[in-house]
Structure to design on (384 residues):
């Protein structure tokens, strides 16, 4: 397990930070949040990433990317989290592009990946349902009808749905099988209702009423769909943990700067023991977030089983991320609650990321189930 960044990953991080720093200033973020007529996405930033060839870091060269792997994508995500960048990197690059690149047909790859790398289209994912966060056990149903599949159900918290060329939708096929479909959000029978998440991201309730999807728009087949959904879930958890790491690193850095500059009783408040201990606890949380994240990323990049590791990284993103963000707000005092001051966004982002694809409790349940299944399989092997 090697936590050191490669030369290419270091270069990606430096370039991404430069782009995000220039684009994601406090005034620009406030402008996007206040634009009720917009879609909450900074399209000029998205185009800048495309021009810098950063949207294709985890897409193979045959499809227009650079093929540098999931670890390189997580470096990009960490920098995006640090800047609180209002762009759909996780649903588009992790949920959409990566799945098509790994499991798509040549026709599917040709249709969607070059345009995404060029910044011309967006993709999204509809993994979550009301009270359900596991895309391998969807309540949304799909039934075969001729050469098509007919989808019925409801998804929630779907990012950038109206702007997406296709949305990845897992649906139950019966007999424990799952299909993952590329659904056109403009198709007949699709209804989208807009909402706003904690971090001001536009998200949508997606109602599917008899939506016809061609067999050519299924990823894999009915026998492999559940595995594809789990592959997506593991990478989604790790990607969110990478985003959260960036959010919290920047929050702690801003807190260190503030508590160094802020004077009370003739000295910097950062010299008081209570403040020092709170910052130290946040630093420990941050290091745990970092180590669990990169263990999961390394295993995923190596093609090793990583379900428990991804869930552990997401657990730390939930619990550790919440503690770091709350500490940052608390140590900023009254100014931390002022929405004209940027630190509040880190708390909003930390809360939103922690809830996406299941909170801390869901991650512990996932880890417990994986260990229980491993123990049962081991006992069965001994018994045989």
């Amino acid at each position: 397990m090697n936590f050191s960044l490669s030369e290419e990953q270091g270069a990606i991080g430096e370039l991404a930070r430069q782009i995000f720093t220039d684009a994601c200033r406090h005034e620009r973020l406030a402008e996007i949040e206040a634009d009720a007529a917009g879609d909450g996405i900074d399209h000029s930033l998205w185009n800048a990433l495309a021009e810098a060839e950063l949207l294709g870091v985890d897409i193979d060269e045959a499809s227009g990317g650079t093929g540098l792997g999931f670890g390189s994508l997580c470096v990009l995500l960490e920098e995006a989290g640090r800047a609180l960048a209002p762009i759909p990197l996780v649903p588009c690059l992790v949920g959409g592009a990566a799945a098509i690149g790994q499991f798509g047909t040549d026709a599917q790859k040709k249709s969607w990946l070059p345009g995404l790398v060029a910044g011309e289209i967006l993709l999204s994912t509809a993994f979550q349902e009301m009270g359900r966060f596991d895309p391998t056990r969807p309540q949304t149903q799909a039934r075969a009808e001729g050469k098509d599949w007919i989808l019925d159900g409801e998804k929630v918290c779907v990012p950038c749905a109206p702007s997406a060329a296709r949305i990845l939708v897992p649906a139950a096929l019966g007999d424990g099988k799952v299909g993952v479909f590329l659904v056109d959000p403009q198709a007949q029978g699709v209804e989208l209702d807009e909402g706003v998440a904690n971090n001001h991201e536009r998200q949508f309730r997606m109602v599917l009423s008899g939506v016809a999807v061609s067999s050519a728009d299924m990823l894999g087949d009915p026998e492999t769909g559940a595995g594809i959904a789990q592959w997506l879930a593991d990478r989604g958890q790790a990607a969110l943990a990478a985003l959260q790491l960036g959010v919290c690193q920047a929050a702690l850095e801003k807190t260190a700067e503030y508590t160094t500059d802020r004077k009370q009783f003739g000295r910097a408040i950062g010299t008081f023991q209570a403040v020092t201990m709170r910052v130290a606890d946040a630093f420990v949380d941050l290091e745990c977030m970092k180590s669990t994240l990169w263990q999961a990323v390394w295993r995923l990049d190596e093609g090793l089983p990583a379900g428990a590791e991804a869930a552990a990284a997401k657990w730390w993103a939930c619990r550790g991320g919440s503690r770091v963000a709350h500490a940052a707000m608390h140590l900023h005092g009254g100014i931390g609650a002022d929405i004209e001051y940027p630190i509040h966004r880190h708390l909003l982002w930390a809360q939103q990321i922690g809830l996406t694809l299941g909170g801390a409790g869901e991650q512990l349940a996932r880890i417990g189930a994986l260990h229980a299944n491993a123990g049962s399989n081991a006992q069965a092997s001994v018994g045989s």
